[in-house]
What we know:
By secondary structure, the protein is of the alpha+beta class.
Amino acid sequence: xxxxxxxxxxxxxxxxxxxxxxxxxxxxxxxxxxxxxxxxxxxxxxxxxxxxxxxxxxxxxxxxxxxxxxxxxxxxxxxxxxxxxxxxxxxxxxxxxxxxxxxxxxxxxxxxxxxxxxxxxxxxxxxxxxxxxxxxxxxxxxxxxxxxxxxxxxxxxxxxxxxxxxxxxxxxxxxxxxxxxxxxxxxxxxxxxxxxxxxxxxxxxxxxxxxxxxxxxxxxxxxxxxxxxxxxxxxxxxxxxxxxxxxxxxxxxxxxxxxxxxxxxxxxxxxxxxxxxxxxxxxxxxxxxxxxxxxxxxxxxxxxxxxxxxxxxxxxxxxxxxxxxxxxxxxxxxxxxxxxxxxxxxxxxxxxxxxxxxxxxxxxxxxxxxxxxxxxxxxxxxxxxxxxxxxxxxxxxxxxxxxxxxxxxxx
Length: 411
């Protein structure tokens, strides 16, 4: 019941992401000073920065997927704003001591009006890219809004023996379909290293969450992959359990690995005449380690590379340009909506760029090469100087492979 469901990255899926991205009608970025006209023409077709709700890619779980249920069924099971309820309870197997609990049975479960009332005092908005742990290609970039989960926890008046919070959403009343994620209570109560809070989310890009995006209410965990941001939220369970109990942990995934920094391409020209400069454009997912550089490298397609250098650390990489913040954000997001959002100033301008936990675009005009088949590779360098896929190259903790795109230069 999350934004994660594909066991492996498929080339077809990635190319689909690139096709959607390249088809954006509105110009998404301001021209970086000094960019050549060859790049300007490509940037005119670049994807919007924020993704419309309807354009997010969907890898939801469920048989049937809950957002596909008829409206009258969704109403009956609490998946509309008018009928939604949230239970906040102690874990029966590993109980936390609470001052009170909120349950459907006793009529105290929180409803949507109560959540919005909390939002009048506590609501936050932040930009986050939603990515599946096992795919790599982002599913969409959004401005998420909701109430910090800690405000919900506080309502239960916890007293002692609270070490973990786990949560799950509607699962077709079938225990075999339950998808659960969890967080240590310390992360829920305190925002480490300048992160936004974990939120009980009800808006995306200023609009109510649609059923496809997990509405009426979902969890959004800023620094994590989609499996932590459970959709169709119905239960928050306060527990004395000392370890993660995520469903994804039982599926051979690393449930504690936060978003990685990596880059990939959106446009690589094919069939360009020999020795003609090549405009290349791509995107970056800026993980918890930040982004300092994007680099590119073109080599002949038949070039062999030493087996003892699998990450091409000795290749002749050259720096690309990380593009500045967009002049038009897209996704129905405008300046007033960004004003006061986490990481933005009162004028809706990012306080730092690129923003962590979000995306950025990059571009390079690569010198022309001889006719034939070639391979373009790109990589990120994070704020600590680690080149992709380091420092966490293992796929179980999120995909960050160095992408290879083969293309032809005409004779």
